[in-house]
C-alpha cells in the first residue's frame, strides 16, 4: 500500500506542465491587472504573436526593482520620474508611452469633508486634511502612492506630519480599497481598479477630472547589455504589438459598465 | 452574510461544473506541495533517525535548533529564497525565480524542520525500546536507521501530514518566490489572496472552501490507503 501511494505521488510529480515556445515575463502594476485589461490583451497577444506573456503583478516600485535585477524582460508601469531614472541608469533601453487612464478620489458617499465641491485635486486633498477625515494611503511605493505623495506636496502638505487619520496600509490597490471600504475612509485610486472593484460598500467617486490626475502608462524593455539573458527580441515584438492599431482598438474599446478606462496614446515608432 | 452564502454557492458550482481553471490551479497546488513533501520527507526523516541513533557532541543543540526552526516565518524564507534565486543573486544563472521549482524549494525549507522535529520525537521513543536489542544483534548504523524508520512508519505518516498541512495552506513564501503568475505559478492560496485584493470575496471564499476540501481529502486518502485508524489494527 505504501507503494501505491508512492506511485501515485510520482505520477503527479512527473506530470509537470509543458510551456509554449515564446514565453516572456513582464512586471506590471496592480492597477493594470486589477482593471481587467490584461485579461483582454494577453489572449490577443497569444493569438497574434504566439507569445505567452507571464505577468508579475506588483507595485511600480517593485516592478522597477525586478527590472533592475533582470528578473523580468520588460515592465509596464506608471511613474514617469522613476521610469526616466530607470532608463538613465541604463537598466532599460528606452521608455515608450502606451496609454493613460486617470486617478480619482474615492470616499464615503456622505462626503463629510466636502471633496466633491473642490475645484482642483489640491483643494480636494486640503479639505480632507482640514477635516481630518480618515484617509487610506497605499504606502507601498507604487505609482499610485508616488502620485498621492506628489499631490499632497502640491497641496502644500506633508504626509509624514499627519495624525492618525492618515492610514498607510502598505498594500496593493485592491487591499487599500478594501480597507477604505471597511473604515469609510477617503482613498486615491486609479479609475480602472475602482470600476472593477467588487466591494464598493458606501464608497463613491467624489472627485475626478483635474489634468494633474492623468496617469500615463509606459513600456520599458530591460536592457540586454545589463542582463544578457533578457529576451530582447520578444520584448521588441511585444512593444510593436502594444503600439499597433490592433492594440489601440482593444485598449480604447475596453469598457466597464459603459465607461471607457484607458486611452491609447502611443506614437508611431 | 451574503458573501459567505455566495461563497458557498459559488464553490459548489465551481466544483460541480468542473471549472477548468480551478482544476488547473488545484492540481498545481497539489503538485507543488506534494513534491515539496516528498523531498522534505526524504531529507527530514533520515535526519531525524540519525539524530535518534547517533550520539555526537552537538546533538542536543541540533535538535533544539530543529525545534526552534519549526516556527520559521514563511515570509522570511520566501524573501531569502527570492534573493538567492534572483538574477542578481548567487543562484541567478539557474533562472529558477518565478517557477514552481522555486516554490517547491521554499516549501521544502519551511517544512523540513517541522517534519524532522515531529519524526524525531517518536523515533527517539522507539529507539529507547529498540536500543538494547539492536545493539545486541550488532547491526550497522544504516540498518538501525532503516529499522526505526520502517517500524515508526505510522508516526512518520503523522509527521508527513503535518508538513503537508503547513505547506498546502502557505501563502507568504510562495507569493514572493512564485510571483502568482497566471497559468504558471498561481496556486489556490495565492489565488485567494488575489481575489480578496479585487474585493471579490465570494470567489475568494469559494477557492478557500476548495482548498480546505482538498486538504481534508488528501489526509483522508492517505489514511485510507495506509489503513490506519481502522478497527482491530494498530
Topology summary:
The complex is a heterodimer of chains A (269) and B (234).
Chain A: H1 2-14, E1 22-29, H2 30-34, H3 37-49, E2 51-58, H4 60-69, E3 74-77, H5 80-88, E4 96-108, H6 121-131, E5 135-137, H7 143-154, E6 166-168, H8 173-183, E7 186-190, H9 191-195, E8 203-207, E9 214-221, H10 232-242, H11 245-253, E10 255-256, E11 259-260, E12 263-264
Parallel strand pairs in A: 1-2, 1-3, 5-6, 5-7
Antiparallel strand pairs in A: 3-9, 4-7, 4-8, 4-9, 4-12, 10-11
Chain B: H1 2-16, H2 20-53, H3 59-69, H4 74-85, H5 100-136, H6 141-151, H7 153-168, H8 172-178, H9 188-197, H10 201-225
Helix pairs in contact in B: 1-10, 2-5, 2-6, 2-7, 3-5, 4-5, 4-8, 5-6, 5-7, 5-8, 9-10
Subcellular location (chain B): Cell membrane
Keywords (chain B): Membrane, Transmembrane, Transmembrane helix
Domain ABC transmembrane type-1 (chain B): 26-222
Key descriptive features of the protein:
heterodimer; A: 269 residues; alpha/beta; D-Maltodextrin-Binding Protein, domain 2; 2 domains; ten-stranded mixed β-sheet; two-stranded antiparallel sheet; 11 helices; 23% strand; globular; B: 234 residues; mainly alpha; MetI-like fold; 76% helix; Sulfate ABC transporter substrate-binding protein (chain A)
